[in-house]
Amino acid sequence: MTARADTALKDVLVVELGSRVGASVAGSLMAQLGADVVFIERQATPTSASSSWKQRHRTQFAAGKRSLLLEPHRDLVVSLAAQADVIVVSSDVDGEELDFSALSARAVVCDVSAYGRTSVNRSADTELQIQALTGIIETTGLSSGSPLPLPFPAVELMTGVYAAGAVLAAMRVRDLSGRGQLIDMALYDCAFAAMATFLPRVLTGDKTPIHRLGNRHPMIAPWNVYRAKDGWVLICVGNDAQWRRFCETIGKPELATDRRFLKTANRISNIDDVDAAVQGWVDGRTMAKAIETLSAIEIACGPVTPINEYPREANLDYRAMIRTLSEPVLGQAIAVPESPLRMSESSGQISGRLDAPDAGLEWCEQKLREVKSPPAPTSKADAPLRGVRIVEIGHYTTVPLSTRMLASLGAEVIKIEPPEGEATREWPPSQEGQGYFFTYMNSDKRSLMLDIRKPEDAESLRELLRSADVLIENLKPGALARRGFAPAQLAAINPRLISCSVSGFGVHSLYAGRPAYDTVIQAMSGVMAAIRDGDVPVKTGISSADLMGAEFAIVAVLAALAYRKRTGKAQIIDLSMQDIAAWMTQTLWNEDDSGGGKVRIIACSDRNLLVEATATDSLDDLAQLQPSYALPVNEVVAKLTSPGLRWAPIMTVHEMAESPETRSRQLWFDAIGDDGKTWPLLASPLRLTLTPPDVRSPMPRLGCDNEAILRRNRRDGPA
Q1: Which superfamily does 389-585+688-716 belong to?
Q2: Is this structure's pTM higher than 0.90?
C-alpha cells in the first residue's frame, strides 16, 4: 500500500500501558488508523518461552508503534500519559499505575480487564479461564467428544476490537464537548455478548441442555466437513431447493425424494445417514474438484485452509492480507496480518516499522516537547452518535449486531426489510411469530419495509439515503448495484454518505459472488484448521467470523465518521470476513503455538474442568494430572497445589447466563416493547462511563415505522 497523506486518527497520541492482549489490539487498530501509539514494554528482550500470548508474539502487537521501556523511563511515561489523547491500561494485571486524577480532563482512558472495574470480582483471570466460565469452551467440539478450548486469544481479540470502537466513540464525545472519560472494558462482558446465538432458549426459561454440534448446524442439513482425497471440505446445503440441486449434481436424484431426506426437518432427524451420503460422494475426489462442482450450483462450500506459517489461501493473497516484517531483536522474518480495515480514503495500514524495545525513546522525548496544553471542556457531553442517521440493509448476525451497538451509542438506525421480513425475524423460539434472537439482535432500531425491486420503493430508499450519514449492508457484492445503488450512484445521491459493505470475501475478491456463511469463513481462514478433535477440524462454537465482522464494522464506521468530520470526505468501506477471521489466528502464525501442551480438560464426576499452566516450570505438574477423575471438581481442585496452575470450571450456557457475575453486570434484562410484550435484551459491552450506551427498545413489528419515516423524508428532504 502507498503512504497515506491523511488518516482517521491524525495527530492523536495514544499511550498503551496495558499488558493484556486486548489492550494491545486496541492500540494496534488505532495505530492502523493513523494514531501515534507509544507501546510501553516491561522487558527489554522478547521471549518465546513466556506463557503470555502478548510476549510470545511481540511482533504482531508492536508493529507500527513506538517502543518505550517502562523502566527506567517511568517519569517520561507518566508525562506522556498526562498529555495523551488516549491511555490504554489493564488494571487487573498491572495494578493502578497511573494517578487518574492527574490526567487531562480531555483524556480518554480505556481499561481492559477480565471483569471490569465496577465488578466485585477483580481476579486477573486468563483468556482460557474466561473461555471456560462463559460457555465458549463448552459449546466448541464434536458432539461425541470433549469440549475444546480455542487455541488463540479469541476473547482478548474481541475485547480489543470493541475497545477500539469505544475509544473512537469517546473521542467523538471529546471532540464535541471537550470532555474525556473512562471506558471500562471487561473480557467477561464481551464473551457473554459472543454467546448471543445460544441465548434465546436460555433467556426465555427453556431448561433443555445446549449440546455441542461440532461442525453441524442445529436447523440445516447437510452442513459439515467431509474428508476429500487431499484434505477436508466444508459443505453447507442451505435449503430444500439446494438439496435437490445437490442430489441431481452428484448423480443421486433418488436421495431428493427419499422420505428420510425430503425436507430439512427429515434430514436433521436422519443426520448421520445424510452425512454418510455426502461423504460417499466426496470420497475419492480432490478438494478442488468437489468445490468446483458445488460452486457451479451455488452451494456454499470451501476447503479447510491450513496454517503453514500463515493461512495459505488465494483470496487472502489477492487482498494482500499477509505482510512480512523483520524482528529487530531475534533477526527473524515474521508474518503479520495487514489491517482488515479497507477504506477508500483512510484505509487502515500497519507500518513497515517495527521498533526494537526502547527504540522510540528519542521520538517520545521530542513528542513531549511538542505537546501543548489542551483546551478546557466547552459543553455538556451527549451520546456519541446523537444526530447520526444510519440505514441498514442487513440480515443474520454481522450487520444487525454492528448497527445494534451503534444504535446504543445514540444513532438513529433504520432497518430496511423486504416484505417477508429479515431472514431471522421468525427464527424460533418466538413470541407470536417474532423470534427472540431477532428481537434482541435488532434492539433500538426502526423497521422500514421496502421491496427495492419496485421502482417506487427504490425511490423511497433514495430519498432516505439523501438524509443519511451511513449505509451499512451485507448483501452479496453487486446486489445493490444491480438495483441502481452502485458506489458512484450513491455518491450522486448523497456526497456525504459513508457506505460500508461487509461480505464474506470482500467486494474486491476472487470469490465476490460465492455464498459465504460464518462456518465457510472459519474454514477458509485458518480458524478451523487450528481447532482439532483428533484429526477432524472443528469450528468455534460461537459464530466467530460473524461476530468479529460486526466489531470491525463498528470501528470502520466510527473511524469514517471521524475522518469525515475533519476533512468533509465520505468514503467506501470494504470489509471481508475472511480477512478478519484470518487476522484472528495471527498468534498461530510463524510457528505452532496452539498451547496444546499448556492446557488440559479434565473430566470430573460432576463437570469438566480446565487446568492451565501459566509458567514453564508448571508444565510437569500439568502433565501429572489424569484426563479424568471419579471425583467432583472441588476435590480435584484441591490437588492443584502448584502456584503455576490456573483452573476454571467449564460452565454451560445456562450456568453462565444465570451466574452472579452475569447478573451483577446486568448483561441481560427484560424490556417492554411497543407491542406491550416482555422481551429479553442484551446490554452493550461498550462501557463508556460518562456517556454510557443506552439499550432501551425491542425491535418492533415489520414495517411499523413506514409511514413516519417516509412522511419525514418527504418533509425534510436532503440532510
Answers
A1: Crotonobetainyl-coa:carnitine coa-transferase; domain 1 (3.40.50.10540)
A2: yes
